[in-house]
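Quick check before the chapter quiz. The format below is the same one you will see on the exam, so make sure you can read both the input and the output lines.
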Amino acid sequence: MKTTLVLTIGMAALLPAAAQSAQPEKPNVIFIYADDLGYGDLECYGAKLVQTPNVNRLANAGIRFTNAHATASTSTPSRYAMLTGEYAWRRPDTDIAAGNAQMIIRPGQFTMADMFKSAGYATAAIGKWHLGLGDKTGEQDWNAPLPQSLGDLGFDYHYIMAATADRVPCVFIENGMVANYDPSAPIEVSYEKNFEGEPTGRDNPELLYNLKPSFGHDMSIVNGISRIGYMKGGGKALWKDENIADSIVVHAQHFIREHRDKPFFMYFATNDVHVPRFPHDRFRGKNPMGLRGDAIAQFDWSVGQLLATLDELGLTENTLIIVSSDNGAVVDDGYADEAFEKLGDHKPVGPLRGNKYSAFEGGTRIPAIVHWPKQIQQGMVSEALVSQIDWFRSLAALVGARIPKGAAPDSEEHLMTWLGENQEDREYVIEQALNHGLSVRTKEWKYIEPSYGGAFMPNERIETGYTLEPQLYHISEDYEQKNLAKEHPEIVYRLQGILKAVKDKQP
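Here is the expected output.
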């Protein structure tokens, strides 16, 4: 009996090694998701006035996509779709979220984090969230654990900003509680009215010693910068904008080190390029474009810090890194940071028409880079038409995860395209503008459905593409300069049919 027992244990001990030799080790996966970073904002995409050596390193040894698309030209819907595999316009509550919005992704939904967790991964979300917290809008108690947070969505660890840096509350949330909570300064948040005695940017501009608004953004003041929304308290928990990048990098590095011995998935979402742009002293005044250029450089530094940590731990070879952005670029989005005045020859959206918020290409065509040395052996450029919504099912295929029936209803599996094994195009991508207008983009054509809204956003100086006329553009010719809808009614009809079929699809 003893001999048999010893033999059984011996065989069991050999099984993991045999299995490992038969099946490749699962890669770590890191999403580096920038905010408002445009198609032309990176050096490897043609930017001349800013240096991005760390992103260049990823592009030069990985795959740089030139026809990649976010699902929306604004943040909240874009992130919702990417993390759930469902187009945001299918839900009525996925517009740009206030800082006190309830959780938009509901705990019952199967998320990308759930998918990775089911495949044995440790999961983390670090940085900008902007998808709501708590179970009821405007009723969060920021002085206690939130009843619903990212732990309910598959993330083992989370250190996040509730929304964006220009919206209150201006504190980090760690695992569902305010980080560095200061009991002497209890937190109150409102998006309806100010708290008695609290200064605002509108009434107290003399207190704005870091940045002043160019339009809007004139409510509660934190760190010498006025925001959207009203906030009271916070004390030692309040962030300093110049330290945001350092804070999220340090927490990301800690997570990587803690999980060096098992596969991990990390959603690392930066705020640098989003307003208010107020990078650390290390970067300020170093770029000819001023604060916006400095912020791009700070984003690149954050990428470099994560790479250095992976290099140090010997994890780079088998870590799949995706660098992208949630929507296109905007130059002036509400703060007087001289972004337009110092833009020079820099083209934040490259040759494209439109910007963030727009129905045109500049709103949704974004940089996308995939780097995985173990699988991708040399740098390449892919012109394949791809959509961020397909990361969900593509990566599920990579790690062998099973997706429940009804989950990720709009995501398609295009793993071989994302890994550069082929350059097969998605048949079409669907894009959503700020005004909820939808577009259908094929490799050759783009149809923009008629929609309401002004043709120009004067404060942001953005051409929106909103019109009551159907629009059809031959993408490969002139970057949406000539509307060909009347010349090609048959193509309009075909693309309208695609859009109708997608709208009618029952998730």
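If your answer matched, good. The chain has eleven helices and 22 strands.
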